[in-house]
Design a protein that fits this description.
By secondary structure, this protein is α+β, with helices and mostly antiparallel strands. It has 3 domains: about 120 residues, OB fold (Dihydrolipoamide Acetyltransferase, E2P); about 70 residues, Dihydrolipoamide Transferase; about 220 residues, 2-Layer Sandwich (Chloramphenicol Acetyltransferase). The chain is about 35% helix and about 25% strand. Strands 9, 12, 15, 16, 17, 18 and 19 form a 7-stranded mixed sheet that branches. Strands 1-8-6-3 form a 4-stranded antiparallel sheet, with no helix packed on it. Strands 5-4-2-7 form a 4-stranded antiparallel sheet, with no helix packed on it. A hairpin with a 2-residue loop joins strand 13 and strand 14. Helix 9 crosses helix 10 and helix 9 crosses helix 11. The longest helix has 29 residues.
């Protein structure tokens, strides 16, 4: 009797999800706890494992469909078509393999068995790369252990496939022009100058990001104040202590640790920046849960470093590094992004010089970091070159006054330019 595969609990307040990708096709062999589908929620992607070993008997929804928590997603039968795959490889069973392949067109295309076998060897990160880059994994030679595909293999194949595709029409055009009537060049020109459009449905995460950002603009009285900071002291500290720090803690000393500590220090002087509006009340927090914006395969996400004000530099760096890896692998959970009282976004890693970040509701402020570049500045009556970074604080003016916003940003600037302040709580 087939076993129902239901949509699992996806986290607090999450009641539905979108089917992002079927990882198994009807007739495919399925192992116990092997993922058969990937679901997209408002915040994260979740893989649905099979509760039993057997064969995927039926898919009850299509990719892109919205499903509720607890709904029956698919059915897995015991045994059935799962057996032919290993039997076909045995010397005494060549006749068994043929019916299995011949039967497959009823439910899937002939290419499906090869794709399914490839999917068994793909990690979640590689499967997402295949989906996003629209490449055929069976046509890519893997460089990993035992010939497995890696994410880099997929990306390299995606970059390489565009050149032949673009070159082919150009190569055909001269031949066509020579073989056709005198009006052939115009026809060839029309082909090479063809303009195309592609419609791709927004992922559930992208839809949620769009909704929340627009909601923030519609609800909050957004305002941004700017300052710049001399990064010389932080850079010198990193150069001086990076080897000792990594040797002792097993993690590199980055810039984010300094900025998180600086925000924690500044929030003590300006608590409204770490507060939120709830109805007609202001909720102040005696703790700092920092949402750190990181790039995930399907958009920007903000996992939360909790109690950051009580953490050491090493603890902060380890937490951020762990979230960065989980985001890259698509393994962040809803709990990882739950809560948060203040956000730090580092657009500088992408080369941004200046921006006006949007707050992450219900938070009331976000600090934007940007790229470091050498600029001429006045120091002690002389023009000198210093590594400078622009800082931007966007805030909800309903709660935070301009004086408070400027004071907060100045406190961050002072702490970064003189990191000793972080040690003596000044």
């Amino acid at each position: 009797m087939p076993t129902d595969v239901k949509v699992p609990t996806l986290g607090e307040s999450i009641t539905e999800a979108t089917i992002g990708q079927w990882l198994k096709a009807p007739g495919d062999a399925v192992a116990l706890d092997e993922p058969i589908a990937s679901l997209e929620t408002d915040k994260v992607s979740v893989e649905v494992p099979s509760p039993v070993a057997g064969t995927l008997a039926e898919q009850l929804f299509k990719e892109g469909d919205t499903v509720a928590v607890g709904a029956v997603l698919a059915r897995v039968g015991e045994g059935g078509a799962a057996a032919p795959a290993p039997v076909a490889a045995e010397p005494g069973a060549p006749a068994v393999a043929a019916p299995a392949v011949a039967a497959s067109p009823e439910g899937t295309q002939p290419e499906a068995p090869a794709s399914a076998e490839g999917a068994l060897r793909l990690s979640p990160a590689v499967r997402r790369a295949v989906l996003e880059n629209h490449v055929d994994p069976s046509a890519i030679k893997g460089s990993g252990k035992d010939g497995r595909l890696t994410k880099d293999d997929v990306i390299a194949a995606a970059k390489g496939k565009s050149s032949p595709a673009q070159a082919e029409p150009a190569a055909r055009a001269p031949a066509q022009a020579g073989a056709q009537a005198p009006n052939a060049p115009a026809s060839a020109g029309a082909q090479t100058g063809e303009r195309r459009e592609e419609r791709v449905k927004m992922t559930r995460m992208r839809q949620t990001i769009a909704t929340r950002l627009k909601e923030a603009q519609n609800t909050a009285a957004l305002l941004t104040t700017f300052n710049d900071v001399d990064m010389s002291a932080v850079i010198d500290a990193r150069v001086r202590y990076k080897d000792l720090f990594e040797k002792k803690h097993g993690i590199r000393l980055g810039f984010m640790g300094f900025f998180v500590k600086a925000v924690a220090l500044a929030a003590k002087d300006v608590p409204s920046v770490n507060a939120r509006i709830e109805g007609d009340e202001i909720v102040y927090h005696d703790y700092l849960d920092v949402s750190v914006a990181v790039s995930a395969p399907k958009g920007l996400v903000v996992p939360v470093v909790r109690n950051a004000d009580a953490m050491s530099f090493a603890e902060i760096e380890k937490a951020i590094a762990a979230y960065g890896k989980k985001a890259k692998d698509g393994a962040l959970t809803a709990d990882d992004m739950k809560g948060g009282t203040f956000t730090i976004s580092n657009g500088g890693v992408f080369g941004s010089l200046l921006s006006t970040p949007i707050i992450n509701p219900p938070q009331s402020a976000v600090l934007g970091m940007h790229r470091i570049e050498d600029r001429p500045v006045a120091k002690d009556g002389q023009v000198v070159i210093r590594p400078m970074m622009y800082l931007a604080l966007s805030y909800d003016h309903r709660l935070i006054d301009g004086r408070e916003a400027v004071t907060f940003l100045v406190r961050v600037k002072e702490a970064i330019e003189d990191p000793t302040r972080l040690l003596i709580d000044l």
